[in-house]
Design goal:
Largest sheet: 6 strands, antiparallel
Number of helices: 1
Distance between the termini: 27 Å
Strand order of the largest sheet: 1-5-9-6-7-8
Radius of gyration: 13 Å
Strand content: 35-45%
Number of domains: 1
Number of strands: 9
Shape: globular
Helix content: under 10%
Length: about 120
């Protein structure tokens, strides 16, 4: 059975939010096209978030999730999501499919400091 909740540790590299996940073959995978701005807004209360924080995400709601992303459309192999809480849209690249067989209709996320 696949994980229901995933966790990655984004950090800033050369001014850009990126993450590494060797378990799915990703190194310095960037967040772009609005998702980077969503992360900026999510981590305002996390001290030194640019040095790394934990980001939990799932296709199903989970206790403590703080944002919901709603699928809007596919483009360039990636997927656009709208976040009602932030009133903005962002694009998740095809790396999303390293975690899910297909782009989920909804994504639920939570950011917190690294332990």
């Amino acid at each position: 059975m696949a994980n229901a909740i995933f966790v990655i540790a984004p950090y800033k590299w050369q001014g850009q939010w990126v993450f590494d996940d060797p378990s799915v073959g990703l190194t310095r995978e960037p967040f772009v096209a609005g998702i980077d701005t969503m992360i900026d807004r999510m981590v305002t209360a996390i001290p030194h978030a640019e040095k790394g924080f934990r980001l939990f995400f799932s296709a199903s709601p989970f206790p403590g999730h703080t944002l919901k992303l709603e699928w809007r459309r596919e483009e360039y192999g990636g997927n656009w999501y709208f976040c009602p809480q932030l009133g903005m849209e962002g694009w998740l690249c095809p790396a999303l499919l390293r975690y899910f067989d297909q782009a989920p209709a909804e994504l639920y996320v939570r950011a917190e400091p690294r332990a």
